[in-house]
Records
---
Amino acid sequence: FFSSRRRHTRLQGDWSSDVCSSDLTTIMQVGFIGLGTMGASFASNLQSKGGHQIIVHDISQQAAKMHLDAGATWAETPKALGAQCDVVLTSLPGPPEVRTVATDEHTGLLAGMKPGSVFFDLSTNSPTVVREIHAKFAEKGVHMLDAPVSGGPKGAKSGRCAIWVGGDKDVFEANRGPLDTMGDAVRYIGPIGAGSIAKLVHNSAGYAIQCAIGEIFSAGVKAGVDPLSLFEAIRMGARGRTRTFDSLADHYLINDYDPPDFALKLAHKDVSLAAEMARDAGVPARIIELTRAEMTEALNRDWGHRDSRSFMLLQQERAGILIDVDKEKVEAALKAD
């Protein structure tokens, strides 16, 4: 496979590595498809920060104007783009668009990409679809990896975003250069589909948290607290001062709920009081009530003396798994940031 960390030189139509000559041109040809809100910034960073020669394609050629003005080359189809590139990146709305761009038998990337070339899909995609596409590309000797991005439009523009990669680790390491140009937290997650799984867990958890906050925040406002004052209060509380997912390291990941930092019976009391407050204010609180029900089930297991997060074991039981990570490895992951 081609490496973004090595020098590749085109000589009489063939590729040879690490050839040094003033008469030869060092090339790293990168293709980019999907120049929407996120993709446009990614492609611009590849040009301005990475200094990559890029070939671009989008459903609308007008979307590529600023990239073409900056020296990019236009490709009429994904197939035409793939035929010219060592590494191809796509940033598309979802699974249907990725499948079409990647595998359409007449115009898709697979019809054009050379064996040994690499395809990173930056889209938020289905792990099932990613694995299907990966298998089809593997039949032709083309490497496909899923590499979804978290950071939003601002992160895409600034380069402050996470990119989670699933696929062959050696291929990732050898061709990660364009990804490092686009994001400041590029990380290999695991086999094909792992990046997409991480992205879906992250996004859905975030929206669920927003849903819960929206629910109980509305109850707090209706119960009599000014919205700004309530915001200022909760953002300085223990949860507000902690990175959203860091608390998983305390008890959940290491499967150690004894002794507790805060007992489940006390947490159950707090959630019950919040549910009662919402009821008294005439505000439905479905998520808070569901949380109380989960905690009540854990209390009925005689877990009231255990850490407040012990009720999360119930879902592991339903899923048929047990999460039990070595404490030193968890601590190392926290220090890695």
Note: The first strand starts at residue 8 and ends at 11.
---
Amino acid sequence: PVISGNVSLYNETEDHAIYPTPIIGMIGVLEDVEKACTMDFKNEGDSIILLGSTTEEIGGSEYLARIHGLEKGEVPFINFALEKKLQSLILNAIEEGMLQSAHDLSEGGLAVALAESAIGGQLGAKVVINKGMRKDFLLFSEGQSRFLVTVKKEALENLKEKMDIDKVPYEVLGEVGGEKLEVVINGASAISLDVKEMEETWRGALKCIME
């Protein structure tokens, strides 16, 4: 069903109206609740893998809106065949107990997904990216069909084999551990944030806005 909420054309304040956004409610059945896979980092030393390919697509992104005050550009293209392949691979890997965590890359891109997983698990991470692409694209692109997953080191080769068989693009980014989220891009530090400080900022966001 298409449900109400942001669908309404009358949800507005004195300053501006919200965008008319159709919201589709969906529900599924989890046969075994013990196999539920959440987004939070679980264990020190787990390997962090990015499934899918980062693209130079930043139109309509949170980064453009929040940092640059721009609400413009083409929204990212989605390859539905790749999306289906990735979804199936991840669901099968969860069913087989291979994944420790799984998180989609959506608002805010890779940087926000890493932060959310770190905050949720109260664990930091060390990530290294070597790619000839603008730093803001690498961190904040909202290109489609990308997922952040973690696996125990002993399961990494099995997951790689599955991804190679399915011809799914992926990149091993680093590993979970420590008290900071650290991201190094092409040899230079791009992010170095204490997880507890990130959580305090995140949890205090509403109070900050209200004040």
Note: The CA atoms of residues 49 and 172 lie 4 Å apart.
